[in-house]
Amino acid sequence: MHNNSGDVAEFTLKAIVVGIALGIVFGAANAYLGLRVGMTVSASIPAAVMTVAVFSLLRTRGTILEANLSQTVASASTSLATGTIFTIPALFLWGMVPPYLQVVTLSFLGALLGIAAMVPLRRLLIVKAHDELPYPEGTACAEVLRATVRETGGATSASAWIFRGMAVGAAVKLAISLFYLLPDELRMAVPALPKAELALEIAPALIGVGYILGYRQSAVCVAGAIISALAITPLIAFLGASLSAPLYPETTRLVSEMSAGDIWSRYVRYIGAGAVATAGILTVLRGLPTMAGAFMAVARGMQGGDGRGAGPVARTDRDIPGSFVFGGVAIVVLTAALVPGVFAGDMSAMQRAVLAAGVGVFGVLFVTVAARIVGIVGVSSQPTSGIALVTLLGTASIFAGAGWVDPGARAGVLTVGTIVAVAASKAGDISQDLKTGWLVGATPARQQLGQLIGAAFACWAVAATVMLLGHAYEFGSPEIPAPQATLMKTIIEGVLSGALPWDLVLTGAGLAIGAMLCGVSGLAFAIGVYLPLATMAPLYVGGCVRALVEHKRGPRAEGDSDPGILAASGLVAGEGLAGVAVAGLVAAGLAPKAMEPKLGGLTGEVAALLVGLAICAFLLRGGRDRRMAQP
């Protein structure tokens, strides 16, 4: 299965440079996407295909090991974006804007912790547990690498769909958010239901995400949003119409004076927060047997030895030296404990020590758990939200018990979640990459070093994207909702101050429990309850396009590249990069933050609808492209 020859090009300058460049692109795009809808997409397969395409443009045919190393470096950015967007925007919402270097440091420390703690687990989880842990994204990426490297034409066709998607996504985003040619949403009031609205955002990235998720997952998301928009909002409007005093937590306006958006902001948002928090925590609790088994299996495997003989270690079984493992974890914990300014808030030495201990304990624990769980469910289903919530609840409870409940304490607790969320996400990401490398005969030590290099560059791009969007727009606004960070903010405030409308939060908890009892993804449903219907509807549109493609085309054989997925990934990257560029112009005062579209009224709505249909047609054509199927 493996190539043990040491003369195959692998860790080359072109592989590193291309990987860094693609990592910056996908890191910025994923940060933008995560701040929009609270989720990110894997960059491994798009990066693998684009790497081969770039090698072709450079008129140099790279080896499969070079392509694998390049996608390993590029995919390092996804986990940094996930952990950062889950937490850092909450500091903006508290009016405690963090310094740029602090965000960079938190991201990199999380990446270093995740990589270092994963190294001793590789042989046990990737090699010895091969039959038990398939690592779905890693296996799929290996198949794509083999196909694209073997067939230059296939690689060219695949990369063409990514670049076309990027062009379409960027063009639509610029037309809507920079030139204001079209309205960005379509809305329609629902008769007989007070304050109920149907809404659809014209967003290529969201349609692309829905295509990637598939019909079922996107349908679960929009189901939660429909309940919020067509059941909870009208119910609150109906019951509150006759009230002569504001309904808590609102303190000034009557319910009858509120719009549908106001009702969502003041009431439904808390119900959604309760649903997401409950679904995340229950997901972790439900996985406790698996987590305990994973931790014990790793402990038994390490206690029983790593399986190496006393002889020379083969290239395909060589890890970074053990000193990096202990040194990496120690550097993270000691830096967090001893260097003022790593954690947000003005922390005392004792508080920093407690927070650093939380990083060490929760970080190593969840790295071990995440590295094994993603081997079964994949990175897309990794419960990062639950991991972050458990970390924040545990740390905040300790702070509350010690009487540390000031605003600085809230910020410090939040940034523990940043490091742990990045570390857990990084463990899942590198596990998939190491699985890909094991299948194609790569050198683990070089992949681990490549991940470290990728993280060292991507942390700057991800932090810059978050800071830029935070300054150009307002987190929590319709433009940049930052749903996960808003949720983390709500949870920390609830634990440290008790200032939560618990009746609304517990209502959301009941909805999440009901969804999970029905056998659907509690988190997907809860995110739908938490986010507006306008944001979730395009996900469902993309999922419907995917269902139509699969109905007409039939399932692809294992190892076939899916051009529809690549086109959808291009839409995400294109809109993400364009969105970051527009934010830069807005922050510099060179473009307006908002203005009325040039095509207004019915003409604008029809034009926007046609643009949405054109995006669907583009994905439909990409999904039906059979030129990339293996012979």
Describe the protein's architecture and organization.
With 631 residues, this protein is mostly helical. It is 71% helix and 2% strand. The protein has a two-stranded antiparallel sheet.
The computed structural class is: mainly alpha
Reported for the largest beta sheet, the result is: 2 strands, antiparallel
Radius of gyration: 24 Å
Give the N-terminus to C-terminus distance in angstroms. Answer: 21 Å
Count of β-strands: 2
The number of distinct helices, counting runs of at least 4 residues, comes to 23
Q: Strand arrangement, largest sheet?
A: 1-2
Percent strand equals under 5%
**Quaternary structure classification:** single chain
The coarse silhouette is: globular
Tell me the series of helices and strands, N- to C-terminal.
HHHHHHHHEEHHHHHHHHHHHHHHH
Whole-number mean pLDDT: 86
The helix content, as a percent range, equals over 70%
What are the low-pLDDT stretches, counting only 5+ consecutive residues below 50? none
Keywords, separated by commas or semicolons:
single chain; 2% strand; two-stranded antiparallel ribbon
Summarize the structure in short.
The chain has 631 residues and is mostly helical. The chain contains 23 helices and two strands.
